[in-house]
Amino acid sequence: MKQVILLAVFTGLLASCGGHKTNEKKTVQPTLVAVTNPISNLSHEIITSGVVESNEIAHLGTRIMGYVKKVYAKKGQTVHRGDLLINISDDEIQAKGRQVDARIAQAQAAFTLAKRDEERFTRLLAKKSISQKEYENVHMQYESMRANLESAKQMKKEVEANREYTQIRAPFSGVITAVTVDQGALASPGMPLVTVEKNGDMVIQTQMGEKAIHQIAIGEQAMVSIASLDKMFKAKITERSSSSIATGGQYQVTLRIPRDVQQGLLSGMHADVTFQLKSELIPDAVSASQVETNTKANLATIWVPRTALIDKGGLHGLYTVSADNVAILHWVRLGNSRGDLVEVLSGIDQSDTIILPGNYRLHNGLVVKTQK
User: Fold this and answer.
1) Is 164 helix (H, G, I), strand (E, B) or coil?
2) Cα 213 to the chain's mean position, in Å?
3) pLDDT greater than 80 at residue 219
4) Which architecture does CATH list for 62-89+166-197?
5) For 350, left (φ over 0), alpha (ψ -120 to 50), or beta?
6) From edge to edge, which strands make up the β-sheet containing 174-179?
7) Is the pTM of this model over 0.85?
């Protein structure tokens, strides 16, 4: 009987506990986040990729074939005009020079004798001691010997000129940027041996398509960004190519870098150049090659603040706010940089709302409340 009563009490206690169970749902407090919207690319701009170069570059070679006797040039070396950089064997030229010297001596002797005869026959002709025909024969011999001597002297100049091509010297003061030959190698005509770049006069070389090239002019300025040095400055357009035959359908544009910003710049550095166009470009103005080189014109190109990006193992991403006010992580592909802005090539749309960094930890699915 006691067991029955205890069972009934235990059952009642369970029922009583079950009666206090609630179905209330836990409320999640949203995180207040700062947001912004992407900036659309201006339709009156075109951004191209360029390279920093010296305004004067000399690729030195030789006109003769010979073995390299000595290489004095070293990559990165500072040189002055006239410095000997490479010495090429000139044994054959020296042999030819000795032959020419012998020919000059022979021609000189013949000319001296012919000149003496011409002078003597001139006096005889004045006295009418010889006929006009006799004088003309001697005079013709004199002219022939003079021509032979002049020919030998010209051959001497040719030998001396070829000997100069065995002594590769710096055409101006600058820096050695490339040495493509070693001691003992065979140098041949047309083969670049050493490259010299002039100091203190840097330019940017870039390219653009045919529908944009007429919308810029020499003398105008463009904005240049050197991401590796975090530099931004204006540069003047100094050259605009009139042909794209040798450059794959793209027109070469040269911009001179102001001297006061050249410090720290090195040849080969990447540069982004923003040109202000005179009119809007239609969407088909960008060729396939331009797209491959990150050249954009009147496309739905968007820019985001650099601070909004996150980097995970070389991958770049940013958080946006969904329609349900939830943080969503998007992995993006980046393009050019312009100051504090970075171009986003893919991964988000212009209509997306981007979450800026703040005193909060973002993660996928975080409920947020926006403030601009």
Assistant:
1) helix
2) 19
3) yes
4) Beta Barrel (2.40)
5) alpha
6) 57-60, 194-198, 174-179, 78-79
7) no
Contact 11, 348 (CB under 8 A): no
**What pLDDT band is residue 289 in, cutting at 50, 70 and 90?**
very low
Q: Looking at the domain that runs over 91-164, which CATH code has it been given? A: 1.10.287.470
For residue 248, what is the DSSP state?
T
Q: Where are the domains of the chain?
A: 31-41+300-371, 46-55+201-297, 62-89+166-197, 91-164
The fold adopted by the segment(s) 31-41+300-371 is 2.40.420
* Amino acid at the residue 262: Q
Please give the average per-residue pLDDT across 288-314, as a whole number.
64
Q: What's the CA gap between 172 and 177, in Å, rounded? A: 14
Residue 166's nearest CA partner among 90, 94, 113 is 90
Tokens (6 digits) for 205: 């070389």
Give residue 38's pLDDT.
84
User: What is the spatial distance between Cα 52 and Cα 166, in angstroms, rounded to a whole number?
Assistant: 32
Tens digit of each residue's pLDDT (9 = 90 or more) over 167-204: 899 999 988 989 999 999 998 888 899 999 887 788 99
Which pLDDT score, from 0 to 100, does residue 161 have?
A: 85
- Please give the CATH number for the structural domain made up of 46-55+201-297: 2.40.30.170
**Distance in angstroms (rounded) separating the CA atoms of residues 335 and 41:** 12
With 50 as the cut, is the pLDDT of residue 298 above it?
A: no
pLDDT of residue 293: 40
104-122 burial code (b ≥16 CB/10 A, e <16): beebeebbeebeebbeebe
